[in-house]
Amino acid sequence: MRVVQVTDTTYTNGSPGIGFYIQGGTASQQSDFGFTRFTASDGGAGDLIPPSVPANLAANVISASEIDLSWSASTDNVAVAGYHVIRNNIQIANTTAPSFADLTVVPGTPCTYTITAFDAAGNTSAPSSPVTAQTTTPQDSIPPSVPANLQSSNVNSTSLTLTWSASTDNVAVTGYRIFRNGVQVGTPTATTFNDTQLQASTSYSCTVAAFDASGNVSAQSQPLTVTTAAAPQSPPTFVQVNNNQVASGSTVSAAFRSATRSGNAIVAYVIWNNTGAAVLSDSSGNSFVNVGAPLSWGGGFSAQVFYATRIAGGADTVTATFRTPVTSFGVLYVHEYAGID
Q1: Which residues, in sequence order, are bridge partners of residue 211?
Q2: Is residue 16 in a domain?
Q3: Given a cut of 80, is residue 35 above it in pLDDT?
Q4: 194 and 112, same structural domain?
Q5: pLDDT (mean) for 317-325
Q6: Per-position DSSP letters for 87-144, written without gaps between them
Q7: Is residue 86 pLDDT above 90, yes or no?
Q8: N or C: which end of the chain has fewer CB within 10 A?
Q9: Can you give the pLDDT at residue 284?
Q10: Which structural domain range is residue 209 located in?
């Protein structure tokens, strides 16, 4: 309601305003008083009514990092000025329209939204009913980088150690696949691998591939060829010995007093009194090999060494057969050894 309206034409320039004049007092009290700004009130209360609570809040997952929100518009006794958008109890935006596109979603993280309406007087409604939405984590299809700088160390006759530079990945490297001669033999998570149960004096081609949690696997590294060391040599162990001698005939035999052990070796020494050949055999069917031609000396004496490795084992009798029968003596010594291959 308009009470009064006037037009003041007293001042045509400068800062216009209103004022008053005190009159009837002393000369020092008579003066003009003015001001250029003032506030008037009718004495009534301001707008204290908040907007209605936003209703029908809905969330729509658009992508791995976007969720769009919409709701029914609130009403107010004067006017709705806008809306507060709240995610997981934190206000993230204001909007004047009853919709909002949240473009800052962390993929795979649940998001709970509420909306409050506010007016120009600062009145804020109660929050809407919450709504929860969650985007999916995008599928990772990028493999890790190829492992580099593959090297070997601590190489012995049965094992070796491989090391390489760590691979990188757009998410994270989960582990590595170790290949020996094209066959996978390990999946360590660190950049080192101890390869065991190898054969002595053998060459192996080694490669490494990296993989991530999504199953993406890199190409294999450049191959590294490593040759294991020779097996350590241990002196043979004597097990048992026996001998026999004949004065004449075509054969001489000597039996072991105890059963021989499978995998051991037999070494036999034969001495006879002519320069004919001799051959060895035994009751277990082992194969004997001579160590060179017979050694001959003096008045037609001969000696020769024979051996059989990886024997069958068990009770055994060894027999030397002379191509030319002996007429004075024929001697046979048989030894069993472990550790001769």
Answers
A1: 175, 217
A2: no
A3: no
A4: no
A5: 96
A6: ETTEEEEEESSSEEEE--PPTT-EEEEEEEEEETT--BPPPPPPEEEEPPPPPP-PPP
A7: yes
A8: N
A9: 96
A10: 148-227
- Residue 3 clears pLDDT 60, i.e. is over it: no
The total of other beta-carbon atoms located within 10 Å of residue 284's CB is 19
Count of domains forming the chain: 3
In a domain, residue 72? The reply is yes
Q: Which residues, other chains included, contact 30 with Cβ-Cβ below 8 Å and sequence gap of 6+?
A: 21, 22, 23, 24
Name the residue with tokens 């000369």: 27
C-beta separation of 231 from 277 below 8 A? no
Q: What is the pTM of this model?
A: 0.46
Predicted confidence band at 64 (pLDDT cuts at 50, 70, 90)? confident
Buried b (16+ CB within 10 A) or exposed e, 257-274: eeebeeebbbbbebbbbb
Residue 340 is predicted with a pLDDT of 85
Q: What is the mean pLDDT of the chain?
A: 90
- Residue ending a domain, choose from 183, 201, 227: 227
Q: How far apart are CA 52 and CA 77, in angstroms?
A: 9
Residue 217 DSSP class: B
Residue that is written with structure tokens 């216009």 in the block: 16
